[in-house]
Every structure is written in C-alpha cells, then in structure tokens.
Write a structure and sequence with these properties.
Elements: E1 4-9, H1 13-28, E2 32-33, E3 41-46, H2 51-67, E4 72-77, H3 78-82, H4 84-88, E5 93-97, H5 105-112, H6 121-126, E6 147-149, E7 152-155, E8 179-184, H7 195-199, E9 203-204, H8 207-219, E10 224-229, H9 251-261, E11 266-269, H10 279-288, E12 301-303, H11 311-316, H12 323-337, E13 342-349, H13 356-368, E14 371-378, H14 386-393, H15 398-421, E15 427-432, H16 437-441, E16 444-449, E17 454-458, E18 466-474, E19 480-485
Parallel strand pairs: 1-2, 1-3, 3-4, 4-5, 5-7, 8-10, 10-11, 12-13, 13-14, 17-19
Antiparallel strand pairs: 6-7, 8-9, 15-16, 15-18, 16-17, 18-19
Helix pairs in contact: 1-5, 9-10, 10-12, 13-15
The structure holds iron/sulfur cluster.
Length: 499
C-alpha cells in the first residue's frame, strides 16, 4: 500500500463534489483513507465564501500540522485560488492548488508523497521541475504563475485551463446520494460573490460524459444522484455546437435525455438561480416529479437562492431578478410539482446599507412563500469584490446583523416545522442512508424523503434502499418519525433487515 490520505471538506455541495473526486482518484492510486492524525497526506478542500470560512481553513491546517507533523498537507479549493500565497506561508503546507489547476490536484498530491504515477503528457509539460519525473525539456514552457513560497508549491492562475476535475466513476459508497458535478464557474457578477474570481467563467461537462457517469452509477446499484454545479442552471450554454443537432444544450434537455437513456430511479437538482428556472425546466417538474405519473424520478425539491426580498438590495447585489420574479417562479414550480415540493433558499443578512425596512421586506417575502428550509448567512466582505467597497461605505452594525439573523432563524424554524407537519399521517418515498451509530443503537434507520425531508425509520436497514414510509410524527430534532410501508413495486425494499 503506497500510503494513506484524509480529505477535510469545507464549503458547498459543489466543493464537496470536488473533494470527493480527488478522493476517488487517490483511492484508485492505491491510497487508503485514514484519520487526519495518522494519514500521510492531508488534503484540505477550502471554501472562501466568508472571512469565517477562511479562518476555519487556516485553523484546520494549523491543527492538522500540530496533530500530524509528518503529513504532507495539500490545500485546494476556493481559498487556495483567491489567496494562494497566504496559505503557502502556513507551516506544513506542501502544495497549494487553486481551482484553476484542480484537474491536476490528485497527481500533485501523489507527488508530494514521492509517488510518481504515469502522467499524461500534457501534465508533465506544465509540472514544475521539482515534480517532474524526467529532466525538463529546455523548450518546455514554464508553468503559469507557479511560485515557490516557503516550502509550498503554488498552482493558481486566472486562465482556469485545468479546472474541470472530471470525476472517476461515481458509485453508491460512502455517499449514498453522491453529487455529480456537471458545471463549473459562474459568469454572473453578484457584488458580494468571490466565486467568479475563484472558479472562473461557466463551463460544462459534456452530455456524453454525464450519460456515461449516470449509466455507470446505475450499473453499480446507485438509486439517487444529485446533479450539482456552481451555477447549475447555466449548464450547456457555452458548449460548442454539437455534431449531433439533437444533443442537449440546456439543463432541461439534459435531464430529459438522462431519463430517456438511463434507468436512474431518482435524480435531484441542487441549487438553481431563480431566473434559470425556465418553462422547460419547470415543465420537467410536472412530467417527472408528479406522483400521479408513478414514482417521481425527479425529486420534488427546488432550491432557489433568494439572498434578499428587497428590490433595492437585490439591485445593489446585482442579482438578476426582482422579488416578484422570485415569487412567480415559486408559484410556477408549486403548480408543476404540487404542494409537497420542498422549497429551499439561501438568504444573506446585513448586505451593506440594508435598512430595517429592507430587511422587513425580506421577512415579509419569506413569510409569504412556503419555504421548507432556509440557509442563512451574514454578509461577509470578500477582498476584490464590489461588496468590499460597499461595506466600507455603509456597513451594517454587527449587533444589527446578529438580531436579524436571530429573527430569520426563528422564522426559518417555524416554516420548517409547518412544512414537515403537513406530512403527518401521509406516505412518502425515501432512500435509506448510512445511519449514525447512536441512532442505529436505538434500532432506527436514517433516510431522506424524495422531497428532501430527513426521516428516522423504525427498524434497521442498509443504506441505499428505496422505501415507502408512513409518517407518524416528528422527532425532537424535527425529523419525520416513520415506519416502513409495504410496496408492490419490485424496486422498493418492503421489510427492515438486520444489518
Ligand atoms: S450567481 Fe452570483 S452568487 Fe452565485 S456563484 Fe454566480 S456570482 Fe456568485
């Protein structure tokens, strides 16, 4: 066995998918997973969405170094792209790989361990001399903006030529419902957001590669797959004209093709910007997420980032919709998928200049819409974004931000309870998950409903079983308490098993 690794994840689902893909490549190279205190290689997949995210990554790196001084620490992700030199200066960091060079992360990580896998020619040409297995050719161009800082080698530029980490085949392993990341980067310029700088413009994985992944996942016994991306709704827009005029160029056409060409039982869409919910995408909810037409193959779950319910704040944020557009999209989605749809949103609190009246507009919009959950974030100024200067001009006092966060947290909890309470006494479809030991000891199984509600089922079952459940109550944590229901469909597990 050539060694061991640990990956520490920070950030969103898309970042998680990046980290999982690196892990799959490392396992394929023969490395075993190990606790961070014992691993030969610790990969830290950073986020940079807030100053707090940066701080958490730095603290983790220092802790990993303290616990395991011999480990090679490789830092990647959004913070590594935004401020690589900052990370390269931390003790113990062997390499910093920005999102611009993410495709090379597994190879670079292996090389920090002294392993020398066979590299594709194009990678050898850009690796710096310290990492190349053979003497450099004199005509080999120097790697773009690669710098030696302290002990760490930095890989980051603004060309993003090696940024799409095409994943090794996804299988239902540690993650029952893995993310398939099909889109990277973002061409929007929301004034608070650092992502266009840390991940570059929008790029899409080809429909052929996506179909191959989905077919391989189904063949490996996978039941639910999550399509994810940084700006998922833009999938396909920049792809070159395909030789096959029938090839999909929009997310809606892609999803339809997946359902036509594969037998994947369930597909979930992760976050999609409000204005990217076009009529074709919403129509899929009516066609594939409607229980009247059989088991929903498309999960009745829609996550539309809201950020603010104030027209003026949305304008300052350079968001491309107004509050009434948002409400119209929600109405159309509910009409297509029915009222069991679970609606989620991100909401940002304390954007520069946010007045009490503007905040109350957000509260009023949230009250008016049937959200099942909210992800709440305090505004955090990111260097290099317009929001940084706006914050310098008109910051919202931290005490006010705290009060507004508390008010929205209470409202979000109220909305979540009301939404989940609607399902008491009802039957729903779900997929079983890996159950935490504490819950397993109580003879129960974790699951997630097709419409994105956490469940605890009476009885023990293995992960990755499709089940029908009957909801009897809510647990103290707010999950649905449920029992297994018999189902005539052969794809559903009908009885609890001892595991
Ligand atoms: S849509 Fe806006 S918030 Fe989302 S990634 Fe793009 S720039 Fe950032």
């Amino acid at each position: 066995m050539p060694g061991s690794f640990h990956i520490e994840y920070f950030g969103c689902r898309a970042a998680r998918a990046d980290g999982e893909a690196v892990g799959t490549h490392l396992r394929a190279a023969g490395l075993a997973e190990e606790a961070p205190s014992l691993a030969d290689l610790v990969v830290v997949n950073t986020c940079s969405v807030t100053a707090e995210a940066d701080r958490a990554a730095r603290a983790y790196i220092r802790r990993a170094r303290r616990l395991n001084p011999d480990a090679r620490i490789v830092v990647t992700g959004c913070y590594a792209q935004r401020a690589p030199q900052e990370l390269a200066g931390l003790p113990g960091v062997a390499a910093v790989i920005g999102n611009s060079h993410k495709a090379l992360a597994p190879e670079i990580a292996l090389r920090t361990l002294g392993l020398r896998p066979q590299l594709p020619t194009e990678l050898v040409q850009i690796l710096p001399a310290a990492f190349t297995p053979a003497p450099q050719q004199t005509e080999t161009p120097a790697p773009p903006q690669v710098a030696q800082v302290a002990q760490a080698v930095v890989w980051a530029d603004d060309r993003f030529a090696h940024s799409f980490l095409e994943e090794a085949q996804l299988t239902p392993g540690q993650q029952t419902r893995p993310n398939l990341k099909i889109q990277e980067g973002c061409g929007n310029r929301c004034t608070f957001c650092v992502i266009p700088f840390t991940r570059g413009p929008s790029r899409s994985l080809s429909s052929e590669a996506i179909l191959r992944q989905v077919e391989g996942f189904v063949a490996a016994g996978g039941r639910e797959l999550v399509l994810s991306g940084i700006n998922l709704g833009r999938w396909g827009r920049e792809l070159p004209s395909p030789a096959d005029p029938g090839a999909p160029r929009t997310l809606a056409a892609l999803v339809r093709l997946i359902f036509e060409r594969t037998t994947l039982p369930r597909l979930r869409l992760s976050s999609i910007e409000p204005m990217d919910w076009d009529p074709a995408l919403i129509a899929l909810m009516a066609g594939f997420a409607n229980p009247a037409a059989g088991s929903p193959r498309l999960a009745r779950h829609a996550h539309l980032p809201l950020q603010s319910g104030s027209d003026a704040v949305l304008r300052r944020m350079h968001r491309r919709y107004r509050p009434w557009h948002y409400a119209q999209k929600v109405e159309a989605l509910l009409h297509a998928a029915g009222p069991d749809l679970t609606l989620g949103a991100d909401v940002m609190v304390g954007f520069p200049g946010e007045t009490n009246a503007e905040f109350e507009e957000t509260v009023a919009l949230i009250r008016a819409l049937p959200f099942g959950y909210l992800h709440l974030f305090p505004f955090s100024p990111r260097p290099g974004t317009p929001g940084w200067a706006l914050h310098a001009e008109s910051p919202v006092a931290p005490r006010v931000v705290d009060e507004r966060m508390a008010a929205l947290r209470a409202l979000a909890a109220e909305k979540s309870r009301a939404h989940r309470g609607r399902f008491l006494g009802r039957q729903l479809e779900a997929i079983t998950l890996h159950t935490p030991a504490e819950l397993a000891a109580q003879g129960r199984t974790s699951a997630l409903t097709e419409n994105f509600l956490p469940v605890e089922i009476e009885g023990r079952m293995e992960a990755n079983q499709l089940v029908r459940i009957s909801v009897s109550g809510l647990t103290p944590d707010g999950a649905l308490a449920a029992s297994l229901q018999p189902s005539a469909s052969p794809q559903y597990a009908a009885t609890a098993t001892s595991v």
